[in-house]
């Protein structure tokens, strides 16, 4: 459900405005509104003096750049660094000075190390390329002329453009007066290396020509030419070793600096980012000649703690004034979900739609009831329920620091309980294994044995019945929502829809002989009245929507259909392993198939249960478009 | 005793739903992949949208099951 929000005005002495902002930021409970508008008692509130954030932003960019160069030092430990207390207690100006000093002292050293490392990396990569080329052309060494005054150039050409060689050849022949050699070999899967040897006196013309044709030309550096290729390879290897050694030394130096400064820089970054965020909200604050004004929404349950924090810091000099409850402002009120522990994880699903309006009903508790019910109805197997419970507990423990995984696993955990209950109802333990072993049998209720394979029609009727209940509940909530928003036509339209659907169901009941025929005329009268309501409330679209709503109800048949598919796969797993005849092989096949089925059972029923809520249920009452509650608050260190 | 026409009829009912769902999901999936690439936060909504046409195959399955059960 949604927490009641209070609209408050915080007024304090202007000289203390920075401290007031700090206290409110630490409290992290006020959703800010523009303090300069809609102020009672004719107060004239001006914008707060502008705070220049450019200096702070550029300092943060420098710090982030340096953190990127440094090697992370145990991210868990640095959160508990003693430096946090040291820096956190500094006033803002001192904090900026400290951060600037540290940045200045590290910048030159880090930059030179980083630049040198970058240069070495580039050189190393280039050497690898030369090495690859030389290794490729070394078998051709014997074919190269050993004439003085000739230049060797290597061209790299993609295989798909191999035909370009035929174009280059006559031009080179013309430029060099036919004094050249042209040898090609595959370099790798995509490229060909072409070695050209020509007289040095034509070198400039040849290079100009190749450049003009966009041919990728590799010039082996001077130090590796004029020597046998084997010697060149040895020299390249030696250079590579030297580069690696130097890179290792540089990394060691960076590590040393990281050990000393990484935690400090991360702490400073968090504190300064907090401050920047704090100042970005300045446009919401206001001032009069002597006072500083903050206006916003606060959840009712957080109001006492916020008041207490302000009283402790400022005594009576800062006043929290609760603005009168004004229904015309409700559309601006942010929504804060405040559900009991059993419904809390299901708030995750509310992220899929826009938040409800403040006056709307929060459907989270209803999702918390129906989602596990639908999930259990579909999966319905004691064994699968146990596996899903263990899986969700294990994953929840393993990823306990990632909130969304915890939420998802809590949902699975809750859903596994109805799964086991329905499993008992259907008499399923890993498909029909429990029944074969004589451990469990399907329950017989209302004269029907609820074995899913045999009781398809009763299950279909049950699921459609659930659909009718769920859709009727949605329509009833729609009436309540419309009443809260004083939308009479919507109330009449939804009541008409309820009446018409009830009429159709009663007529079907009368046709099947479950409802006395004497009520038929009353039912037809109800339906006619309902159609009139639908036309009044929603026009012709209202009547057409009846078909859509009937389709929505039929859609609940998926609860039976997907469940049946799941139980048939479980039966296949058991039968196949039985047919194999070899115990060990049978057990392995059964485990593999059941594992597959359990993973499918965790995914598909979740999606379909969710879909039934978002598409079938929400469309009957949910409007959305509310403002999410975003308190002005501090990132916790 | 039922003839071959019952399972064939059930298969047609199921196949019609399955093919239609496949066509719809392929289009939603392609558009959804583009949406998620642009706005990763919309992944949840896209998954729900992707599940919407499955109503067709489920209804096809229900009709197929009813053909087999009722005719027998």
Describe this structure in words.
The complex is a heterodimer of chains A (637) and B (72). Chain A is of the alpha+beta class and 637 residues long. Chain A has 18 helices and 14 strands. In chain A, a hairpin with a 3-residue loop joins β8 (286-287) and β9 (291-299). In chain A, α2 (54-69) crosses α5 (92-137). With 72 residues, chain B is mainly α. Chain B has helices at 5-38, 43-51, 54-71. Chain B starts with a helix and ends with a helix. Classes of the chains: A alpha+beta (637), B mainly alpha (72).
Features:
heterodimer, A: 18 helices, B: mainly alpha, 3 helices, 85% helix, elongated
How does the SSE layout of this entry go?
The complex is a heterodimer of chains A (637) and B (72).
Chain A lengths: L4 E9 L3 H11 L3 E3 L12 E2 L6 H16 L5 H4 L3 H7 L3 H46 L12 E9 L5 H12 L4 E7 L4 E9 L3 H10 L3 E3 L10 H52 L5 E2 L3 E9 L3 H12 L4 E4 L11 E2 L28 H16 L2 H17 L4 H24 L6 H4 L7 E2 L2 E2 L6 H29 L3 H25 L7 H35 L3 H23 L2 H35 L9 E2 L9
Chain B lengths: L4 H34 L4 H9 L2 H18 L1
């Amino acid at each position: 459900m949604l927490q009641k929000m209070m609209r408050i005005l915080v007024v304090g002495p202007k000289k203390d405005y920075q401290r007031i902002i700090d206290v409110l930021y630490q409290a992290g409970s006020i959703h800010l509104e523009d303090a300069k508008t809609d102020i009672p008692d004719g107060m004239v509130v001006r914008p707060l003096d502008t705070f220049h954030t450019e200096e702070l932003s550029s300092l943060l960019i420098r710090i982030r750049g340096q953190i990127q160069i440094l090697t992370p030092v145990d991210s868990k430990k640095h959160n508990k660094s003693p430096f946090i207390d040291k820096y956190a207690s500094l006033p803002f100006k001192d904090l900026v000075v400290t951060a600037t000093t540290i940045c200045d002292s590290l910048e030159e050293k880090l930059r030179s190390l980083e630049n040198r490392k970058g240069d070495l990396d580039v050189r190393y990569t280039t050497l690898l390329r030369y090495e690859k080329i030389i290794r490729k052309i070394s078998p051709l060494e014997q074919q190269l002329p050993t004439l003085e005054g000739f230049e060797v150039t290597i061209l790299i050409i993609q295989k798909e453009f191999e035909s370009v060689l035929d174009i280059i050849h006559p031009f080179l022949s013309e430029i060099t007066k036919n004094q050249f050699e042209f040898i090609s070999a595959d370099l790798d899967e995509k490229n060909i290396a072409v070695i050209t040897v020509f007289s040095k006196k034509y070198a400039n013309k040849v290079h100009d020509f190749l450049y003009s044709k966009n041919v990728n030309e590799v010039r082996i550096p001077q130090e590796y030419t004029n020597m046998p290729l084997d010697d060149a390879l040895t020299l390249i290897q030696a250079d590579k070793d030297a580069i690696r050694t130097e890179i290792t030394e540089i990394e060691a130096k960076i590590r040393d600096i990281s050990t000393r400064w990484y935690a400090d820089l991360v702490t400073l970054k968090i504190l300064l980012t907090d401050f920047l965020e704090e100042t970005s909200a300045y446009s919401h604050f206001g001032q009069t000649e002597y006072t500083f004004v903050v206006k916003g929404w606060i959840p009712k349950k957080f109001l006492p703690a916020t008041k207490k924090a302000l009283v402790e810091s400022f005594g009576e000099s800062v006043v929290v004034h609760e603005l009168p409850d004004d229904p015309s402002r409700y559309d601006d009120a942010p929504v804060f979900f405040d559900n009991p522990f059993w419904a809390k994880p299901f708030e995750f699903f509310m992220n899929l739609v826009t938040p409800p309006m403040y006056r709307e009903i929060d459907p989270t508790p209803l999702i918390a009831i129906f989602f596990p019910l639908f999930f259990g109805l579909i999966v319905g197997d004691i064994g699968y329920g146990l596996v899903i419970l263990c899986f969700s507990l294990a994953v929840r423990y393993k990823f306990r620091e990632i909130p969304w995984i915890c939420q998802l696993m809590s949902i699975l955990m809750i859903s596994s309980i109805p799964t086991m209950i329905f499993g008992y109802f259907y008499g399923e333990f890993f498909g029909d294994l429990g029944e074969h072993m004589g451990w469990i049998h399907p329950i017989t209720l209302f004269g029907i044995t609820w074995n899913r394979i045999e009781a398809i029609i009763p299950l279909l009727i049950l699921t459609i019945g659930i659909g009718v209940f769920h859709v009727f509940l949605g329509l009833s909530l729609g009436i309540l929502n419309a009443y809260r928003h004083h939308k009479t036509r919507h109330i009449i339209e939804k009541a008409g829809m309820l009446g018409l659907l009830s009429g159709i169901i009663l007529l079907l009941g009368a046709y099947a002989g479950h409802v006395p025929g004497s009520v038929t005329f009353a039912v037809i009268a109800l339906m006619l009245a309902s159609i009139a309501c639908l036309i009044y409330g929603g026009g012709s679209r209202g009547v057409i929507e009846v078909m859509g709503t009937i389709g929505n109800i039929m859609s609940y048949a998926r609860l039976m259909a997907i469940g049946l598919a799941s139980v048939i796969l479980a039966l296949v797993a058991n039968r196949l392993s039985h047919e194999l005849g070899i115990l060990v092989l049978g057990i392995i096949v059964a485990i593999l198939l059941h594992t597959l089925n359990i993973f499918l059972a965790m995914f598909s029923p979740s999606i379909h249960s969710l879909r039934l809520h978002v598409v079938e249920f929400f469309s009957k009452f949910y409007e959305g478009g509310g403002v999410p509650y975003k308190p002005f608050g501090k990132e916790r260190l | 005793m039922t003839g071959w026409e019952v399972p064939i009829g059930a298969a047609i009912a199921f196949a019609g739903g399955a093919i239609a769902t496949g066509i719809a999901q392929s289009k939603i999936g392609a558009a959804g992949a583009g949406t998620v690439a642009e706005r990763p936060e919309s992944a949840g909504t896209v998954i729900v949208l992707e599940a919407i046409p499955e109503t067709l195959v489920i209804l096809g399955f229900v009709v197929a099951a009813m053909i087999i059960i009722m005719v027998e």
